[in-house]
Amino acid sequence: MKFLPRIIFSEFTDKILDESYYPIHPLETLKAHLTAAWLLQQPNPDIIAKTEAFISKTTAIIDTDVSRLKKLASETLYWDELKICSAYTNTMGTFLEYKLFLTDHHMQQQVLHFHAGYKFNLGRCFFISETPPLIRVAGDPVLQQPGALYPDNPTLEEQLELSAQIELAKSVLIQTSGAGIAANQCAGIKNPYRFTIVGVFYESVSHVEGVEKRYPGTKFPQAKIMLNPVIISVSKDMQQFNHACLSVPCGNRCAVLSPVEIRVKYKDPLDKMAIKEASYKGIDAVVLWHELTHILDGKTYLDVTFEALSDEQLFKFVTMLDAEIKHRLIDGQLNIPELSVPPFHVSVKINAEGIPQLDSDELAAVLPKMTDETLSGLLGQASDQLKKKYVIESDKPAQITYTSFFSLMESQNSGRDPVRKGFIQAKL
């Protein structure tokens, strides 16, 4: 959902200068604070004083927020566009993910990308926090490759870097209510080492409550940090679980088969790098498999799903992703993608024969709740998998015949909308 700042400013200027005015919901608060930043550019001292008073009474971090908006005002020449990417609620509060497009005084276009947090009190909405994105989304090049091996004889600089990466990953895991996280998922880690955190920090009440909301009734293992993990063995028996992922932020779930038992060897960074082995069974093995797939293979659960789907069903998945993107480009986005869960949508199920089956109705229900970045990332990944399976197939009557493929600006894009040349035609 996109807005022109000049229209926002005309709507909110008089409201901000009215001492009795308080915004009542997050989007209104965001627009009002953006207008406040613009008003801080005005030469009128009375307007600036009233604007600072408005900021102070509508934020939980008074000094910080006034300074933040003053800095934004001082660096901005033209206010180009506000884009609301998503909305969600968790144990930390209610959040809006947004991008602000602006032009600075050097005539350089800038894109600011933030998650802003809000709380409600007595029917009023208050700003409480703002952070850059915490999680890499499907299609990000760093997410789609394995983490780097941590050296056996690290330098002091490497030791400090690992400690910082682990602390950041733990913080992100708790804030995002995940049941595990891999280093390459964390947006704040530029060059991730090969480690994962598997499980839940049960000493954190907010983490426990958040995980319960995302996975109702599921008991996960106590969090454990595994550095340079190596899979020693897996069982022949497989189990089914409806996977979700922080890097695919929405209510989508896909049934995926993974080993009932996994034995792993790893270094414990919290125990003087002792080499340990552990066996995980049941749901614990599901979590371990999910995180190892991230950090060892550079894959999300949907990458695994794309590989497992039949050619026809993968093609259907791709065309539905593409149709949703085209719809937004042509008709505009009328609603903000709501990432809060439940409800859940199991878009891929596994039948009695153990074969993944696309549920088009469930996928259609969840696609409007995905952000543009998620849609574009998944389209790139699914299209790449489709290209691996076929270039042109015309001799199999039950297969898909392609007359043209998607042409993507980047085969592993970082969230940009794909550039499509031509179209796909299919014959089943």
UniProtKB/TrEMBL annotation:
Domain of life: Bacteria
Entry EC no(s): 3.5.1.88
SUPFAM superfamilies: Peptide deformylase (SSF56420)
Keywords of the record: Hydrolase
GO molecular function: peptide deformylase activity
Pfam families: Pep_deformylase
Enzyme class: hydrolase
Protein name in the entry: Peptide deformylase
Organism of provenance: Legionella geestiana
The gene coding this protein: def_2
